[in-house]
Amino acid sequence: MKFLIPFILFSSLAFSKEILDCNTNSHIGLNFFGKDYEKILSYLHLKEFKIRLSRNRSDIILQEKNNLNKNHSPKTSHFFEIVIIKSSGYPIPMQCSWVYDVRFSNIEDKNFNCISLPENDKVLSLDFNGNFMYSSKFEEFTRNESNNKTLHSLIGKCK
Question: What range does the domain containing 138 cover?
């Protein structure tokens, strides 16, 4: 299994559609872990990180327009994968959806909404302009609290 994860990550990075560079600018709830937010973000490897998208908005729209030309019914929910790549290199795979109707929506409409796999314990929202909110239990700090269901959020920008 240890050999499979780097292979999957490397092969998916080699064929990725888009990689975004992200910076965390603020937070909600990290004060429960302490007051030195920069050290906390460095420890989490989420002050600066990358997001790899398997599909971007333009590709989805192009596919939907091609399907319309072939008289296929348009989809309004689109599913794809992203991987958050911490500055340590650790990947966090997420399954995403984007509610978009090629007949009525604009490319800027609606956020990508993502949930982590397989645990469903992390959530990411990413808008057209690259603004994100990433929420997690950050189990690095709560390993002894098995019943902890509180999510803490990081807010920032990707380019």
Answer: 15-158
